[in-house]
Specification:
alpha+beta, SH3 type barrels, 6-stranded antiparallel β-sheet, globular
Length: about 80
């Protein structure tokens, strides 16, 4: 598992864990970012991390992206 903030653009990843408080977890779930969901990293540079989830582009701060642990599908950890 790696934090979403460290994933290269173009990668399709599976959310494994969200290490955040109740409020942030709920908000991320509403956006489609919850354990078991698949997301695509669109942009990951020195600013925000842009991901595609449920067909929408979502902008996450690097701090929030670092709380989302992901893995590439098919890779055992």
């Amino acid at each position: 598992m790696v934090p979403l903030s460290e994933v290269n653009p173009g990668a399709l990843v599976k959310v494994i864990e969200v290490s955040a408080g109740k409020g942030l977890k709920h908000r991320l779930e509403q956006l489609g970012l919850f354990p078991g969901s698949f997301i695509e990293v669109v942009t990951n540079n020195h600013g925000h991390v842009l991901v595609r989830a449920r067909g929408a582009i979502i902008s996450l701060s690097r701090g929030i992206a670092s709380k989302i642990l992901v893995e590439k599908p098919g890779i055992d950890t």
